[in-house]
Amino acid sequence: MMNRIQSIGRATLAQLSDLGRATLILVQAVFGGSRVGVSWRLTLDQIHVVGVLSLSIILVSGLFIGMVLGLQGYTILRDYGSEQALGQMVALSLTRELGPVVTALLFAGRAGSALTAEIGLMKATEQLASLEMIGVDPLKRVVAPRFWAGVISLPILSLIFVSVGCLGGALVGVSWLGVDAGSFWANMQASVDFYHDVCNGIIKSVVFAVVVTWIAVFQGYDLIPTSEGIARATTRTVVYASLAVLGLDFFLTAVMFGEV
Amino acid sequence: MYSRRMEISVGFFVLLGALCLGFLALEVSGLTQTRDTGSYQISARFDNVAGLTSRAKVSAAGVTVGRVTGIRYDAQTAGAIVDMEISNAFNEFSLDTSASILTAGLLGEKYIGLMTGGDPDLLTDGDIIFDTQSSIVLEELIGKFLLNMGSDQ
Fold first, then answer.
1. Which residue has the higher pLDDT, B103 or A206?
2. A196 touching B, CB under 8 A?
3. Average pLDDT, stretch A8-19?
């Protein structure tokens, strides 16, 4: 009996200390050190790695998700004789939900796992330790640029995803299924509000960006420096980041769109 | 030297993001400059607002002039007070303007239609419209129809 309670306590304390270490790493990487400014050169480099190189997967999946939404929405809306509402359906579901969430999930798989593996391998090969030896703070030099690159890249990727998705929906709906182009775009513009829908989508994706990148760099920085440790940390990054995105999405949606 | 190609690609990436934001603002959400003119608040009292929601359109002669900002119950008159935000570009509604709750299409969303009257005085911030027509509740219509059928026989 007592052993059970002890194991619960041990697990809780372990989780809390993980959370504490993760917060410390983030705070030190972002605010700590003598120089407050981040090296923008290094950040630029990382934006290339996590942002520009993720562009192809975002473009392709955005286009196809938009096309699927157009196709599915059309077959359902046709039953009610309201195919003109297709633009509204595609645009609202993309700006509010699918854009930020799917982009964050893809980002966690494509860039988050790579960040963890890269930082983890630096730790395993003692590059982080040697940086410290020559007086360079690895949190400033390695973690901070990657963190900022993720926070900057993910919202941009999400905007691209939503735009391409809307165009994909228009491609299927207007060009293929024959919904009137005028009513497609007019319905979309009448129902989507820039501040309420587009800006809330951007806020969502900034929150996801912070959480996903934070999890990725922490898992990389904190892993056990063996090949097995790197494998586990990479898996944990994708699993934790995906769960956090989906859970936070419900919470954010309830706050932003919950009022009736 | 940092590779030129990498910097160019990041530049394109950021520009593409800005372009997409512009696309979402102008093409998808139809953002226009009319918001800058500001707005004024008016209210209307209805017997029944069933189906009307916040952010519903307020239109006059089919032109959107504002949005519903809030709906609350008024215990004194046992009715509903609907708060509306009308763009300053449309500030020439007479004091005896009437408001009715209309439906877009057969099953579409509810919106408020304003019909200006003949009074030379104009509606200003905070005024309340009492000359209103409530929304149509399908069950009530069917009930009336059945009642009429019964009385005919």
1. A206
2. yes
3. 91
Contact A52 B13 (CB under 8 A): yes
**Of B52, B107, B61, nearest to B83 (Cα)?**
B52
Whether residues A51 and B30 touch (CB distance < 8 A) is answered with no
The terminus-to-terminus CA distance of chain B in angstroms comes to 95
Contacting residues of B for A197, CB less than 8 Å apart: 29
Contact list, A52 vs chain B (CB under 8 Å): 9-10, 12-13
Q: What residues in A contact B6, CB-CB < 8 Å?
A: 44-45, 48
Whether A88 maps to a domain, the answer reads yes
Structural domain includes residue A19: no
Give the ipTM of the model, two decimals please.
Answer: 0.79
Q: Could you tell me which of B72, B88, B68 has the C-alpha nearest to residue B80?
A: B72
Q: How far is CA A23 from CA A122, A144, A147, A154, B62, in A?
A: 21, 13, 13, 21, 54
* B85, pLDDT greater than 60: yes
For residue A80, the chain B residue with the least C-alpha distance is B107
Total domains, chain A: 1
- Flag whether A24 is in a domain: no
Residue A11 domain flag: no
Domain span including residue A164: 38-251
Contact B24 A159 (CB under 8 A): yes
SS (H, E, C) A85-147: HHHHHHHHHHHHHHHHHHHHHHHHHHHHHHHHHHHHHHHHCCHHHHHHHCCCCHHHHHHHHHH
Token pair of B123, please? 């509606």
- Distance from the Cα of B131 to chain A's closest Cα (Å) equals 26
Query: What is the band of B77 on the pLDDT scale with cuts at 50, 70, 90?
Result: confident
Q: Which pTM value belongs to this model? A: 0.76
